[in-house]
Amino acid sequence: MAATSRADIRKCTDADILGDMQDPLRPTDTYLDGAMLERHAALACELIRRYWESLETRQVSSEIKPGDVYRSMPDTAPDIGLGGASFEESLRIIERDFLPALTHWQSPRFFAFFPANISTPAVIGELLSAGIGVQGMLWATSPACTEVEMRVTDWLASMIGLPESFHSTSRHGGGVIQGTASEAILAMLHAARHRARKRIGTPKSHLTSYASTQAHSSFIKAAMISGFASHPEDFEHVRLVENDDRHAMSAARLRELMLADAAQGRIPCFVCATLGTTSSGASDELESIADACDECARLTGVRPWIHVDAAWLGSAFILPEMRASLRGVERVDSFAFNPHKWMLVNFDCDCLFVQDRESLTDSMSVTPEYLRNAATESGDVTDYRDWHVPLGRRFRALKLWLVIRHFGVRGLQEYIRRHIEFACEFEALVRADPRFEVPCERSASLVCFALKQGDAASKSLIERVNTRRNIMLTQTVLPATTKSAKKFVLRMAVGAALTRREDVLRAWDEIRTCADEIQPNC
Ligand code: PLP
């Protein structure tokens, strides 16, 4: 595409475009114009390709000011459709006004949060799903949409080492794609409460739920949505369990809290364990949590539902050598992870596996006349509408299927292993510099580090690093333990698809340069 200046683009008005159309009120395009799709998709793919190629040289984040993008757009929507003739202009606007105003999550030097992976087959999967445009809420509304999802979630369960009882072929289990890990937690909290009430008919107000102080904030959000809490600090029915010295949930403390609640007539019904916390990547011990839940069940008659949130770390279990923290997983009720974080699948894609699908579907099922059909009534099919909040669902399994076919288990293993190796190398570099410390164990490809000079110095460091925009990191505060006070740390999360070893080395150079500026005398 020829380079066009800002001024040229602005000169090309909507009226110019409309002038080319025979009758602006009756656009010549049909609604599903396959030929136009091909032409426009080719142009859109060119844009994506240019964008991917530009990521090497772009700053990772944008210097845009609040309101700049909003003001660059017209005050009102076009009254008369601009039709296909406007498409190239739309692409120019995207490239000129929108792309520079983004944080480039696919940059090879994006080490913030947890990276959100994409890959060519997954992008094509999104396109195919959009183009095919089915709704798979019931098996009957698009059988392949349901059955491909059942098959790929079964594949995934095997790939990450979950027992057969989480497969759709087991008597009671199965997998489903949810949008996000947050939605999975909400659905599981809801199912847990439903199961507890059904078992002993207890009033809602007696039920309590638990997670560690290091669990993701989506646990509290789910508690707020489902009525366990009215605000984030409402601990009447929610307990945040203190961490141990590894920043994982203290199972001993969980046990104490649950037994104390049970002694006061409350019914602990839900525990959210985390494998790979957002702050430090710590993993709660499933076996000890399950022991505590069994003991509690002997007192109350209700076994708390254990949900495992492995949003980020779950992808690493594709490597057999990473599965130590899965010990005891056969004793949990549900397990969710996000292939959209670290398995080359575009957002959104959270895979949730349950051992007791009936408690979930029972808690969600409402069947108006218009959803009745013979297949459902036969009891022989899975209707995913009862596995989550939304009714409608797109053919999201396609992108997962394409990614797994494209890379294979070995290719995905190699991908994850490489990131872990990069993180090991980064950790060694940090440890070798006497100004720095690594205050908690590296978890897979996540390294937390800090300046020994203290929190203020670490805060200046991340501010300086992120202001230069050559790399991007996020910060967190590690909680206090019996051995250490709470500490402000920087997080280096390796996991973007384009990241190579040299990007990690460059990140370390960048961090060192910024540290030199803060501590010239060290
Ligand atoms: N759980 C953990 C451990 C996370 O790290 C995150 C996000 O980083 C989430 C849940 C929320 O993920 P989602 O955006 O899929 O809801």
Overview of the molecule:
The strands form two sheets. A seven-stranded mixed sheet has the order 1-7-6-5-4-2-3, sandwiched between helices. It has a four-stranded antiparallel sheet with strand order 8-9-11-10. It folds into three domains: 70 residues, dopa decarboxylase, N-terminal domain; 260 residues, Type I PLP-dependent aspartate aminotransferase-like (Major domain) (Aspartate Aminotransferase, domain 2), CATH 3.40.640.10; 103 residues, Aspartate Aminotransferase, domain 1 (Alpha-Beta Complex). It is α/β, with parallel strands linked by helices. The two termini are 51 Å apart. It is globular, with a radius of gyration of 25 Å. It is built from 17 helices and eleven strands. Helices cover 43% and strands 11% of the residues. Bound molecules: pyridoxal-5'-phosphate. The site of pyridoxal-5'-phosphate has 15 residues, from helix 8.
